[in-house]
């Protein structure tokens, strides 16, 4: 396990888009290893921009993001991306090889791991997601739910310390949604889940971080924040059904 308690530390992070839109405004927070954090907020709150900073897709204009005490810079970003896995909402953006197995091996191969270690990681990721039978299938020939699992497996094969999921259950039918929730619940990683699904967040997360207009408006125990009806309504959110 990790000797350092801090998985993610964000200090005074601000970000403007070229058109002048301020997407993040002086954002600061700390996430300890092993936490499961629901990243909540209305559309346009800055969640996607924040996610893109957490693994160096976007580098900080003002302030700093550090993963396991390593600040994300142009020099460290390649290393950081092996520690932070991001699974985007649309799995088609992540599956581009000739087979699911190749998609899952892509990351470990880029990490220059030995062939036997790559094979071990691919096997483990396929097994963890319950899709071993899809190894030789192209992503385009699988269902949406299977693509979601394959996209997650392609990140798990890099064995990240931090896993960031953007709407992991969106567009899934109820059964596939339950299965995905269970699969993610079983993972032993620090987890950040950006979602509009309050019941998913309630079921899976011990901590909630609420963004609105690019600012952190609440950060703390999920059972306190997500049951604060006034706070939730003020920021375009709802108290989870299970918590009412």
What does this structure look like?
The protein is of the alpha/beta class. It has 9 helices and 10 strands. The chain has helices at residues 47-54, 77-83, 100-110, 115-128, 144-156, 174-185, 198-204, 222-225, 229-234; strands at residues 6-16, 22-32, 36-40, 62-67, 70-71, 84-87, 162-166, 190-194, 207-212, 215-221. The strands form 2 sheets. It has a 6-stranded mixed beta sheet with strand order 6-7-8-3-9-10, sandwiched between helices. Strands 2-1-4-5 form a 4-stranded antiparallel beta sheet, with helices on one face. A hairpin with a 2-residue loop joins β9 and β10. α3 crosses α4, α3 (100-110) runs parallel beside α5 and α4 crosses α5 (144-156). The mean pLDDT is 93.
List the helices and strands and how they pair.
Elements: E1 6-16, E2 22-32, E3 36-40, H1 47-54, E4 62-67, E5 70-71, H2 77-83, E6 84-87, H3 100-110, H4 115-128, H5 144-156, E7 162-166, H6 174-185, E8 190-194, H7 198-204, E9 207-212, E10 215-221, H8 222-225, H9 229-234
Parallel strand pairs: 3-8, 3-9, 6-7, 7-8
Antiparallel strand pairs: 1-2, 1-4, 4-5, 9-10
Helix pairs in contact: 3-4, 3-5, 4-5
Short description:
Helices cover 34% and strands 25% of the residues. It is α/β, with parallel strands linked by helices and 244 residues long.
Number of helices: 9
Number of strands: 10
- What is the succession of H and E elements? EEEHEEHEHHHEHEHEEHH
Structural category is alpha/beta
Defining key terms:
244 residues, alpha/beta, four-stranded antiparallel beta sheet, 10 strands, globular
């Amino acid at each position: 396990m990790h000797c350092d308690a801090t998985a993610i530390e964000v200090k005074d992070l601000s970000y403007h888009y070229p058109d002048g839109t301020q997407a993040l405004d002086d954002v600061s927070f700390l996430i300890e290893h092993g936490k499961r954090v629901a990243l909540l907020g209305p559309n346009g709150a800055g969640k996607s921009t924040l996610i893109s900073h957490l693994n160096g897709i976007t580098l900080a204009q003002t302030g700093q993001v550090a993963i396991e005490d390593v600040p994300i810079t142009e020099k460290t970003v390649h290393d950081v991306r092996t520690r932070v896995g991001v699974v985007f909402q649309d799995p088609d953006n992540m599956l581009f090889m000739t087979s699911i197995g190749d998609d899952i091996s892509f990351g470990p191969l880029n990490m220059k791991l030995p062939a036997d270690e790559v094979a071990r990681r691919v096997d483990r990721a396929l097994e963890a997601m319950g899709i071993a039978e899809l190894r030789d299938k192209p992503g385009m020939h699988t269902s949406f739910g299977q693509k979601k699992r394959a996209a997650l497996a392609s990140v798990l094969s890099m064995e990240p310390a931090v896993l960031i999921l953007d709407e992991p259950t969106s567009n899934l039918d109820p059964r596939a949604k339950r299965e995905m929730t269970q699969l993610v619940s079983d993972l032993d990683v620090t987890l950040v889940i950006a979602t509009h699904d309050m019941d998913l967040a309630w079921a899976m997360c011990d901590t909630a971080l609420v963004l609105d207009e690019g600012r952190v408006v609440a950060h703390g125990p999920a059972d306190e924040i997500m049951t604060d009806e006034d706070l939730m309504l003020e920021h375009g959110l709802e108290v989870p059904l299970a918590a009412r």
